[in-house]
Design a protein that fits this description.
Helices cover 18% and strands 47% of the residues. The N and C termini lie far apart (136 Å). Strand 16 and strand 17 (206-213) form a beta hairpin. It has one helix at residues 2-40, and strands spanning 43-45, 50-52, 57-65, 69-73, 78-80, 84-85, 88-96, 105-112, 117-124, 130-132, 136-139, 144-152, 157-160, 168-173, 177-185, 194-201, 206-213. The chain has 1 helix and 17 strands. It has 214 residues and is of the alpha+beta class. The strands form 4 sheets. It has a 5-stranded mixed beta sheet with strand order 2-9-8-4-6, with no helix packed on it. A 4-stranded antiparallel beta sheet has the order 1-3-7-5, with no helix packed on it. The longest helix has 39 residues, at 2-40.
């Protein structure tokens, strides 16, 4: 009888150990499975970061997601037509408002799931400006030095009309910043008034200044 009780106790102990080992193994497998699911979660963009001009427009963004997703814009000048969806390949449209400022700006759209998130960047060009203090200069016959104020946020060039290069020259140009174009007007030794033209231009902007000399 004593040996039976001892045998029963040993058997119960062995069964208990087996249960502990099995439970631990199941728990480990479950944790590894959860971890594996988290690792497998993914978002992949099929389009690259975009750069658009200053006008309003739409940008198409395609991506794949392993889980259901949501889309969020981090700036108020970008809105999204579809803000959520299911796992798979999706295309959303981002509407970009007109940039009326003189500075380039950047915004991003975040696509996120429960376990992962990714951003795509949209860069919008600035509103280009080329503003002159005056488009007309009147000078005396003795000649003088005259300054033109140019407000701009883009690179520009200055050209003098061929017909007046002998009596108008550029001394210097000094960066929306204000530049100074300093002109030297030679003396007019004739009895006639004369007129010259200066062109200030960039790729898509152009301004003309007319100089009248007594």
């Amino acid at each position: 009888m004593r040996y039976c009780r001892l045998y029963k106790s040993m058997l119960e102990f062995v069964l208990f150990l087996c249960f502990v080992v099995y439970t631990s193994s199941c728990s480990k497998d479950h944790n590894e499975q959860i971890q594996e699911e988290k690792v497998d979660a993914s978002i992949s963009f099929l389009t690259n970061d975009s750069t658009v001009d200053c006008e309003a427009g739409d940008v198409s963004i395609s991506f794949t997601s392993s889980d259901s997703w949501t889309a969020i814009s981090n700036v108020d000048w970008i809105s999204i037509d579809v803000t959520n969806g299911e796992a798979g390949t999706a295309t959303i449209k981002a509407h970009v408002s007109q940039n009326t400022t003189y500075d380039q700006r950047n915004g991003s759209i975040t696509i996120k799931t429960e376990n992962v998130s990714k951003n795509i960047t949209i860069t919008q060009k600035q509103l280009n400006a080329l503003i002159l203090s005056s488009n007309k200069i009147e000078v005396v016959s003795q000649g003088c030095v005259s300054t033109i104020d140019v407000k701009t946020n883009i690179a520009y060039q200055v050209s003098i009309d061929e017909a007046c290069k002998e009596w108008i020259s550029i001394i210097s140009t000094k960066s929306l910043e204000t530049y100074n174009i300093i002109l030297k007007i030679a003396e007019n030794s004739s009895i006639f008034k004369r007129e010259g033209k200066i062109k200030i231009f960039s790729e898509d902007k152009s301004e003309e200044i007319i100089i009248y000399q007594q």
